[in-house]
Amino acid sequence: MNCTKCKTRAVIKLPRHHAAFCKDCFNGFVHDQVAKAVKSQKMFGKEARILVAVSGGKDSLALWDILLKLGYRADALYVNLGIGSYSERSHEKVRRFAEAIAAPLGAALHTHTVEQEEGAGIRELAMLVHRPTCSTCGTIKRYQFNRAAIEHEYDVMATGHNLDDEAARLLGNVLHWQEDYLDKQSPSLPASVEGFAKKVKPLYRLTERELAAYCVLNKIDYIVEECPMAQGAKTLLYKEVLNRLETESPGTKHTFYWGFLDRSRKETGSQATMEQKDRTALHPCQTCGQPTTAEICSYCKLMTRAKTPSVS
Ligand code: SF4
Ligand code: ZN
């Protein structure tokens, strides 16, 4: 098998693109896909200060690496969730990448430690407030990433969501006709109100397999295992189903998600309506000042409940 571009020995085959690439041409392909995503979705310009949400997994470390290699000003934030040895190992992967690859390119790593800042690890906090761990985690991560982006004056926040993540999320939203979520599913969400950072997903054109290959070929050491709390998550089932379809019919995920993006683009004004809705519904949280639709934001409510001793 030879590289479709330069005809030397290929190291990876990409059936959905009817192509095979050697290492250099594959890196070029990955960088091109990210550059296209940034340009077509108007994510950010060359001068923007970007904050990448890193977890220690392949997607977020690949994203940080690619943005730096493309010459962007990208720092990162790692949230240590306090999930025993899993968090220790993922933190170590992030620290090593930051020291060896990001720091020499002038990029900084910010760290937020849930046990220090919120008083307990994510599992304990979830138990204290009687909520599922992943929903507690989502509230804390969303809040802390947005806060860091605003406080450190980043122009945009980038996450490592890839094509598999977005297609699985779309499948879940369509299966349950979650229209509100469908309205907000986009690779680029503007900073609709003051106090909310713009959020982008520059990896939406690349699959999990392509990103894993990018890390392996470029010797980016990442945590292979999933977060232990992810077991049984519906998203994993949706990904499995889509992978089966993809094996039978390469390009399925791509067609499914691209079709959705094309249709949402045609719905002229839907983004504007969404922004308008956000603008009128949001005001500052009475406790912390971050934008919220209620008097007190969900993070502050969660922290109050976690600190209130249980009467039972
Ligand atoms: Fe957080 Fe759940 Fe994801 Fe783990 S699986 S990082 S707990 S949302
Ligand atoms: Zn608040």
Automatic annotation (TrEMBL):
Domain 2-thiouridine synthetase TtuA-like N-terminal LIM intervals: 2-27
GO biological process: tRNA wobble position uridine thiolation
A cellular-component GO term for this protein: cytosolic tRNA wobble base thiouridylase complex
Domain tRNA(Ile)-lysidine/2-thiocytidine synthase N-terminal, first and last residues per copy: 50-226
Binding site for Zn(2+) 1: C3, C6, C22, C25
Alphabetized UniProt keyword annotations: ATP-binding, Metal-binding, Nucleotide-binding, Transferase, Zinc
Position of the signal peptide: none
One annotated GO molecular function: transferase activity
Binding positions (ATP): A53, V54, S55, D59, V79, G160, D165
Keyword Transferase: yes
InterPro entries, sorted: Rossmann-like_a/b/a_fold, TilS/TtcA_N, tRNA_thiolation_TtcA_Ctu1, TtuA-like_LIM_N
Highest rank taxon of the organism: Bacteria
Residues at which Zn(2+) 2 binds: C285, C288, C297, C300
Pfam families: ATP_bind_3 (PF01171), TtuA_LIM_N (PF22082)
Protein name: Putative PP-loop ATPase, YdaO type
The organism of origin for this protein: Nitrospira japonica
Lineage start: Bacteria, Pseudomonadati, Nitrospirota, Nitrospiria, Nitrospirales
